[in-house]
Amino acid sequence: MRAIVPYGAVDPKTRLNSVLDTDERAAFALVMLRSVLTTLRDAGHEPTVLSTAPLAEDVRAPSATVAVDDRPLTTAVNEQLAAADTPRLIMMADLPLATPAAVTGLTADTADIAIAPGLGGGTNALVVREPAFRVDYHGASYLDHRAAAADCGGTVSVVDSRQLATDIDEPSDLAEVLLHGDGPARAWLEDAGIELAVGDGRVGVRRP
Amino acid sequence: MRAIVPYGAVDPKTRLNSVLDTDERAAFALVMLRSVLTTLRDAGHEPTVLSTAPLAEDVRAPSATVAVDDRPLTTAVNEQLAAADTPRLIMMADLPLATPAAVTGLTADTADIAIAPGLGGGTNALVVREPAFRVDYHGASYLDHRAAAADCGGTVSVVDSRQLATDIDEPSDLAEVLLHGDGPARAWLEDAGIELAVGDGRVGVRRP
User: Do A158 and B164 touch (CB under 8 A)?
Assistant: First the structure.
């Protein structure tokens, strides 16, 4: 399936700024992007990175098509949806825990719109089989996408995947990578000296 | 499968105290417990509530056996594991998003220890097929349970379920119930006037 991976290339991951500086956030965002591209290819899909700015050649490995569109996320994704046939998979670039099996669980779903929600109402991955469907990533996009699917008469399915639900936006999310990751994103965090902080409640991270 | 549902009956859910008062937290915890008992029974299991204090008859509906043990969680669960044959399912009482299908995904796994992790390193549900295995819920119990399984030579499987990963401990977790729930826990929150607060990042809750 043709897959779109939106990527905000300019000052990414600002909500991690209490733990990572600007250069580190840019580097870590690229590590996560490459992880998602590898996962998609291992699941048998052909990813196109939809980036807000050109990417250097070396960050495009493993090989992926890059389309540059500096408009807002929703506009850029809808342009892609309008330009090509369905089905299309749209998957966020900050899902380093996603496995090929989790992606296959989503793409095997035959609903017109299959949603993998993120924490807090986001939409981390989406399969669109209904040509009239358009995305809206502002606000509680999970609810908006359900409503939009209903508006165009489409069936909706919501997949139950922790791996696809764990987008990495906030410092506490880094703990999930250290707890459950086994790829380059975890290795990058460990090299950067980020470690788990175990207390009474949920595990967090610290940088001693 | 015989299922144990640990339940802290005294001043439950203290981390929700910025949104719910003491009586409300007690009431909401019971709503969630009943939801989990229904889910387990719908999945074909026989739940026993392992409560730190006796429960009134009406909060035991749908009918469930109640065992009272006021010792710490880990001690009480291990006493249960030592007292009966495996396999046993241990499932937390604060998982109102759990569905029978998600529970079946866990119990169908044939590993000696099958884990459904919670956010932040917890262990939300666990199937134990290895008689020598004992739990330890302190700290990052997910990692401890993996290590304990290895120590007794057991195979480990980690299931990929957002529904089972979403334990309700903190105010932001209430947003997940309002976003994804369709049962009594969501209805209770709506009746209490808790609503989604949509901003730029993840959706939270507010109580106008």
Answer: no
Strands (E), B39-142: 46-51, 65-68, 88-91, 113-117, 123-128
User: Given a cut of 70, is residue A59 above it in pLDDT?
Assistant: no
Query: For the purposes of burial, counting CB atoms within 10 Å of the CB of B184, is it exposed (0-12), middle (13-18) or buried (19 or more)?
Result: middle
Is A18's Cβ below 8 Å from some Cβ in B? no
Q: The domain at B2-164 falls in which architecture?
A: Alpha-Beta Complex (3.90)
Determine contact: B208 vs chain A, CB below 8 A: no
Of A121, A170, A180, the CB nearest to B175: A121
Answer CATH for A2-165 from 3.60.40.10, 3.90.550.10, 3.40.50.720, 3.40.630.30: 3.90.550.10
Contacts of A101 (CB under 8 A, 6+ apart): A43, B160
> Under a CB-based contact definition with an 8 Å cutoff, are residues B75 and B33 in contact?
no
Strand partners, B90: B4, B126
List CB contacts (< 8 A) between A203 and chain B.
Answer: 120-121, 139-140
Domain parsing of chain B, residue ranges? 2-164
Closest CA to A125 of A166, A173, A65: A166
Whether the ω angle into residue B62 lies within 30 degrees of 0, i.e. cis, is: yes
CB A176 within 8 A of CB B119: yes
Average pLDDT (B167-171) is 97
Instruction: Examine the pLDDT at A133 and tell me if it is beyond 80.
Output: yes
Cβ atoms A155, A115 nearer than 8 A: no
The model's pTM is 0.96
Integer Cα distance of B13 and B27 in angstroms: 10
Handedness of CA B166, B170, B174, B179 (dihedral sign): negative
- Specify the 3-state DSSP secondary structure of B70: coil
Which letter does DSSP use for residue B196 in this model? E
The residue type found at B95 is L
DSSP B191: H
Task: Give the mutation candidate from B94, B203, B205, B206 for the A interface (greatest A CB count, under 10 A).
Answer: B203
Query: Count H helices, E strands: chain A?
Result: 7, 9
Quick one: what percent of chain A has pLDDT higher than 90? 90
B188 touches chain A (CB under 8 A): no
What percent of chain B lies above the pLDDT cut of 90? 90
Q: What is the rounded distance in angstroms from the CA atom of residue A37 to the CA atom of residue A47?
A: 6
The confidence score (pLDDT) of residue B175 equals: 98
